[in-house]
Design brief:
With 832 residues, the chain is of the alpha+beta class. It is 52% helix and 11% strand. It has 25 helices and 19 strands. The chain has a five-stranded antiparallel beta sheet, covered by helices on one side. It has a five-stranded antiparallel beta sheet with strand order 8-7-6-5-9. Helix 6 crosses helix 11. The chain is elongated, with a radius of gyration of 49 Å.
Length: 832
């Protein structure tokens, strides 16, 4: 329109300078505020408007939705409600938390938009709007005049004019090129999206998983309930038999147990047959793979109390989404197919050599509609394919996922139970099958016992013969030597038979424990219960007289102590005076110690107990252990101290020994240099202790010292019970003694060693300090000690105070400076 106008600046009228003639401009009006005020653009900006429109059509469908409230002054993309096209806009004011009054900066009009209709624009779109505010020159609106009808008429005229101008603009150069280019760009993006489109966008993998979970689910087996009931009945029958002490009742209970055992054998056989027909292992692998893939795609799993309706809701949601998506894809394919047919007709029309007779009307007719429909359908498919799921969609998928994981875990638990019961049933059939038609016999054990008695009688007779021959005064030395060799063979044979006896006891103990608890009652002469109560240590076949003992009275004034040799193995016999009560306690404590050793045996870090046996003529019980002469830590350090590498290995083994005991809640209470063995200078072994005493009684003994270093923990000295941390305190003090053997360590007021003036590796000092601290709750546990990175990675101290060269072994022997303590050390005797 050609008119005299004033351009407005921020809503204020700008008066032209006097003497300046107003020029006439070509302006395209886009929005009317009142009869004399409107928004518009100079006609030369029409092409810029078209470029902006094309750019927004490509950018906005894929742009990020606005996050939070729109920022004032920032340019956004807004979806205009009238034509569903994108235009640039900025915030005028917030209406509600979800609605904003936005102004279209290139046209001047405003509209209330939801935040979901506003998107972010890149930096290159952040420039001022093309619309300007204009006012007709020389006109004013009376204050009492109703301008509404006039506004409507003017706006309608301007809208008609705008439509006319837009139509003219559509005819500008390159209009078709711009439209085709826009469409081809979108089709190219759609082709890429279809190739890369995640098939799981609508939960395809979750859908397949739900089908696998629900359709092939393994439920409780028919034979499993019967097996469980019969097994419970069998266990009750076994427990009743085990508690029975009456010979009158035992046979009735045995018959009942055997009847139930036959039923259990049949139930186990039926269960095994049913399980072997099922693809248990395959199902386990399938569920494991499903759980892993679902957790990676939808995790983490949260426990929800969902019903199976969650699956129905998920499938309904999925079917609706797929139907909507497939319909859109079909419309897109149909629109592009129509466009392809138009291009085909156009090619034929422009091919002068083609025989096809087409008119220009047939070629051009409805081409705009075809292009517009194709672009609209392509944009819709792009929008659906790239739009993120809303909260409602996510909630449905998560609920279905959690329900699926719940069912997977439940079935996995069931399959694990089935597998365990299957293995137990196989083992039951294999082990008890041999006893269905027979009964275990103790005859082999009794035969071994008779053999031992016979060999003992032969040994005693030979000993009498040898003594009688020696009493004659003059005797044949060769014959006496032959007798000694035969006596030695008899002793070895007896020991071999006793070892056989122990193995037979072990076999029978297993049978009693698992299958026939009545055996000790039926065969009291076999003493099976005594064997089991002592963890296999106590035997009545051993006697002190069976050995060729070397008395060691000068080394132990407190109890009988002898050493001997059997089958080339040196052993030590420690005698403890007992009465009925202390003997039972001693056997129980020795059995606990032996069970701790049995877990790892040679790797346990403990000195093994070979046997326990009672003296028939005196109230003395003997403990039989291996003998390590010269290998106790006190002796080794006195003769030839361990080098750093050896010391680390030995003390590592000692820590393992304490850990073995503490794992079974056993407190050693007698950890001192006389009771630690550095076997071959490379293996640390913790010696046994006095089983007639409690840990508190052992821990306050006078030998709990290393030279002048007190090894008893402060809490025990203060009258509190010994705890595992008390052993740790002794261990930490031993480490100090090994590093500073001649250093007279001072003692703090709380009874702990003063290490403040020692020259020692800082890391090692920190570690030792946490073992010898006053409060037992603050001390390191042995398992924590073994896990310490710096454990025993000590450096040699820079200064060893009061250090002296240790005498050589031959010097000690030549000077004959044996004290009772030194002799005990050299022989590796536990002075406890």
């Amino acid at each position: 329109m050609h008119m005299h106008v004033f351009k407005m600046d921020d809503g204020k009228e700008v008066n032209p300078p006097e003497g300046i003639v107003l020029k006439v401009e070509d302006v395209m009006g886009s929005h009317i505020e009142d009869p004399i005020t409107f928004w518009g653009q100079p006609i030369e900006l029409i092409e810029d408007l078209l470029k902006i429109s094309t750019a927004l059509t490509e950018i906005c469908p894929f742009a990020a939705k606005v996050f939070g409230d729109p920022a004032p002054g920032k340019i956004y993309g807004g979806l205009y409600s009238e034509d569903q096209c994108w235009y640039r806009c900025n915030l005028k004011k917030m209406i509600t938390n979800e609605k904003c009054l936005m102004t279209y900066v290139d046209y001047g009009n405003s509209e209330t938009l939801k935040k979901s209709c506003i998107v972010e624009l890149p930096e290159d779109m952040q420039y001022p709007g093309l619309a300007s505010r204009f006012k007709l020159w020389g006109l004013q609106i009376p204050h009492n005049q109703d301008v509404t009808p006039f506004d409507q008429k003017i706006e309608e005229k301007l809208k008609q004019h705008q439509e006319t101008e837009l139509k003219l603009a559509d005819d500008l150069n390159h209009a078709v090129e711009t439209k085709i280019k826009s469409l081809t760009n979108k089709v190219e993006k759609l082709r890429r999206v279809r190739c890369e489109f995640n098939e799981n966008h609508f939960g395809d993998d979750l859908s397949e998983a739900v089908k696998v979970i629900t359709e092939a689910c393994l439920c409780m087996l028919h034979s499993m309930k019967k097996l469980e009931d019969t097994w419970n009945e069998y266990n009750c029958a076994q427990e009743t038999l085990q508690a029975c002490n009456s010979m009158d009742d035992v046979h009735i209970l045995i018959d009942k147990r055997n009847e139930v055992r036959s039923s259990l054998y049949a139930a186990a056989d039926e269960f095994i047959s049913e399980v072997e027909k099922l693809p248990i292992e395959d199902r386990v692998n399938v569920l494991k793979s499903l759980a892993s893939s679902l957790d990676a795609a939808y995790g983490p799993y949260e426990v929800e109390h969902n019903s199976n309706e969650m699956f129905d809701q998920f499938f309904e949601w999925r079917d609706n989404k797929l139907q909507e998506f497939n319909n859109i894809k079909q419309r897109t394919d149909s629109s592009l197919q129509l466009l392809s047919e138009w291009f085909s007709k156009t090619m034929k029309f422009f091919d002068l050599n083609s025989s096809a007779s087409l008119t220009s009307t047939e070629v051009i007719n409805d081409v705009d509609a075809v292009l517009d429909q194709a672009e609209q359908d392509v944009c819709k498919e792009l929008e659906i394919s790239t739009t993120q799921k809303d909260d409602a969609d996510i909630k449905i998928i998560c609920s279905a996922f959690n329900k699926a994981m719940q069912m997977i875990i439940k079935e996995q638990d069931l399959l694990l139970v089935i597998q365990n019961k299957y293995e137990a049933s196989i083992q039951f059939k294999e082990q008890v099958g041999q006893w269905l038609n027979s009964y275990p016999s103790v005859e082999d054990l009794l035969s071994i016992k008779r053999s031992v008695k016979n060999l003992k009688a032969q040994l005693r007779w030979k000993l009498v013969e040898k003594n009688n021959l020696e009493d004659l005064g003059s005797y044949d030395q060769v014959k006496v030597q032959e007798m000694k060799e035969e006596i030695c063979r008899l002793r070895d044979d007896i020991y071999e038979e006793i070892c056989r006896e122990q193995r037979e006891y072990e076999r029978l103990g297993d049978i009693v424990q698992n299958w026939f608890p009545e055996l000790p009652l039926l065969y009291p002469e076999a003493a099976i219960r005594t064997y089991m109560q002592s963890a296999g240590l106590l035997t009545d076949s051993l006697e002190r007289d069976l050995f060729d003992p070397e008395p060691m009275k000068e080394l132990s004034s407190k109890r009988p102590l002898v050493c001997s040799e059997i089958k080339s193995q040196k052993i030590l016999l420690k005698g403890y005076s007992v009465d009925t009560a202390t003997e039972a306690q001693m056997i129980e404590r020795a059995a606990q110690y032996h069970r701790a050793w049995s877990v790892l045996k040679e790797e346990s870090g403990l000195l093994p107990i070979l046997y326990l046996f009672a003296c028939k003529s005196e109230p003395v019980t003997y403990v039989m252990v291996p003998f390590y002469p010269g290998w106790c830590l006190k002796t080794v350090q006195a003769i030839k101290p361990l080098i750093l590498e050896e010391l680390c290995k030995v003390m590592q083994g000692v820590a393992v020994g304490l850990h073995t005991l503490h794992n079974l809640n056993i407190i050693h209470g007698a950890l001192h240099p006389h009771n630690i063995f550095a076997v071959n200078r490379e293996r640390g072994v913790v010696g046994d202790f006095d089983f007639t005493k409690t840990a508190d009684q052992r821990n306050i003994a006078s030998w709990m010292v290393a030279d002048k270093l007190e090894l008893v923990a402060p809490e025990v000295r203060n009258g509190q019970p010994a705890v595992p941390a008390s052993d740790v305190f002794a261990y930490g003090c031993l480490l100090l003694w090994l590093n500073f053997p001649k250093n007279n360590l001072k003692t703090n007021s709380d009874g702990t060693p003063d290490v403040s003036e020692l020259s020692i590796d800082p890391k090692m000092l920190s570690l030792v300090s946490r073992m010898i601290c006053f409060n037992p709750d603050d001390r390191l546990r042995v398992d924590q000690l073994l896990e310490e990175d710096d454990f025993l990675k000590m450096k040699k101290p820079d200064i060893i105070q009061e250090g002296t060269k240790a005498p050589a072994p031959d010097e000690i022997i030549m000077n004959n400076v044996f004290t009772n303590e030194t002799k005990s050390d050299l022989l590796g005797v536990d002075s406890t």
